[in-house]
Automatic annotation (TrEMBL), chain A:
It is an enzyme of class 3 (hydrolase). Keywords: Antiviral defense, DNA-binding, Endonuclease, Hydrolase, Magnesium, Manganese, Metal-binding, Nuclease. Its cofactor is Mg(2+); Mn(2+). CRISPR (clustered regularly interspaced short palindromic repeat), is an adaptive immune system that provides protection against mobile genetic elements (viruses, transposable elements and conjugative plasmids). CRISPR clusters contain spacers, sequences complementary to antecedent mobile elements, and target invading nucleic acids. CRISPR clusters are transcribed and processed into CRISPR RNA (crRNA). Acts as a dsDNA endonuclease. Involved in the integration of spacer DNA into the CRISPR cassette. InterPro entries: Cas1, CRISPR-assoc_Cas1, CRISPR-assoc_Cas1_C, CRISPR-assoc_Cas1_DVULG, CRISPR-assoc_Cas1_N. Gene3D superfamilies: CRISPR-associated endonuclease Cas1, C-terminal domain, CRISPR-associated endonuclease Cas1, N-terminal domain. The gene is cas1. Mn(2+) binds at E166, H234, E249. Belongs to the CRISPR-associated endonuclease Cas1 family. It comes from Paenibacillus durus (Paenibacillus azotofixans). Homodimer, forms a heterotetramer with a Cas2 homodimer. This is CRISPR-associated endonuclease Cas1. CDD domains: Cas1_I-C (cd09721).
Automatic annotation (TrEMBL), chain B:
It comes from Paenibacillus durus. Belongs to the CRISPR-associated exonuclease Cas4 family. CRISPR (clustered regularly interspaced short palindromic repeat) is an adaptive immune system that provides protection against mobile genetic elements (viruses, transposable elements and conjugative plasmids). CRISPR clusters contain sequences complementary to antecedent mobile elements and target invading nucleic acids. CRISPR clusters are transcribed and processed into CRISPR RNA (crRNA). GO terms for biological process: defense response to virus. Mg(2+) or Mn(2+) required for ssDNA cleavage activity. Keywords: Antiviral defense, Exonuclease, Hydrolase, Iron, Iron-sulfur, Manganese, Metal-binding, Nuclease. This is CRISPR-associated exonuclease Cas4.
Amino acid sequence: MKKLLNTLFVTTPDTYLSLDGENIVIRREENILGRYPLHNLEAVCTFGYAGVSPALMGSCAERSIGLTFMTRNGRFLARVTGESRGNVVLRKEQYRISDAERRSALVARNFILGKIYNAKWILERATRDYALRLDIPRIKKVSAALSESMNLVHSVEDLDILRGVEGSAAVQYNSVFDDLILQQKEDFFFHGRNKRPPLDNVNALLSFAYTLLSNDVRSALESVGLDAYVGFLHRDRPGRASLALDMMEELRGVYADRFVLSLINKKLINSKGFYRKENGAVIMDDDTRKQVIKGWQERKQEKIIHPYLNEKISWGLVPYSQALLLARYIRGDLDEYPPFLWK
Amino acid sequence: MPDYNEDDYLLLSGIQHFNFCRRQWALIHVEQQWEENVRTLEGTYVHRIADQPLLREKRGNKLIVRALPVHSGTLGITGICDVVEFVRDPAGIPLSGEEGLYFPYPVEYKRGKPKKNDSDRSQLIAQLMCLEEMLACDLSLGYLYYNETKHRVEVPVTLSDREQVKAVLQEMHHYFTKKHTPKAKAGPHCQSCSLHNVCLPEMLKKRSVASYIESRLSE
């Protein structure tokens, strides 16, 4: 598997990024805040307004370094991409599958299978690790329900039925998610998912983690030559990266949810970093956001054995490896798309 | 045999990829995947020396031309010769704008040193065949220059060499028309392949995805 390079996150607003030889230089007014060699970078991600010189954009495009602009709260704004990678034959086959409901369902069900499997094992692992703190029968009951959903999904060939099973599995999983929060319970709780805007600290964290993940998934899909906007489970909607959303299904829990839980349970963040606006919307302050990004970067460096490839890779390469496997399935090298089934 | 349409020309440099591994060639030329590694960067560096299209040198009885674009309609290929040396020879051919008669000799630059197999030769032979077609002449010799040894190796070209190159090119055109990426024949050569991470040769030896999913679900 390829080597995971670094992602440079620029969280200081009003900075300007420019190119100097083979380096990226970060300036604020007349001061140089940092200088990083491009060959170590996989992606550059800026939060808040930050200008980037056209020369640097060109260099990033040429070297396939993802360059993304986000708002300060982590909402996606724009991305600079070079020539589209990969080949039209692969993308056309992707479109053909996307146009055929049944063929789409066969891929989509493996995304969902991965999602439910990973949700189940997040719960199972928690019952093992915190046997004395958790209401085990309650969680085991949900785990059993998830197993049932998995068996259903396994033979589904219809997208609507798949959505139905996925929806009820999500309800099951969400019903015990709050149980997994073991520290700082008075400040961090989960009573359901809300996102526009997030209305509590946990939802604010989840939203931000999903944004970071979706950025990685989207870049991974594009780097293997797939069209991130044409999905199988998520149907076409202008401006929506449907395939990235599809692939995120299997990674949300195991990648983002677990990450958020560990931030809270290890007390790497606390409620002081969260602000409630007049309308109930919750936003994070800059320090907390930095802390989250730092943790995210550290998580990406951790090594795991890929369950299908059976190869040691870092967490950060999971989106790339799944994108590659999807491309290989679409090209006909594999009999099915192998979801990331993590235990 | 009818000539290929210009739009269907393949890149001459692909012959080397194809000889190394058909799947590698297909990943690069059909699927348009490319990853740099130490070897490819070294290759680019070596060619930087040769890639100076506006440099034209006369040395004694030699006219040295760099980065000369060539093609062949009958083979359906196009590419660039690193260096072509035109050597004055009474038995040669006239060149437009030059006095006297010349014989062209293609010189292909390679990183590393001469290899045991003859994977470098076919690219040179294809270049030579292009030159023959474009200059209407018969040639029998080219050179491979190796950067590591700083030495050039004389490569005589026989009829059977040409037949072999023709056969390889036909196979390449066949795959390209079908837009087909052949499966990998994994081997020791995979270790030095820059596309190892895209190809995943080990993946093809693995069990089916269906059985991977079955076994995980039954846990």
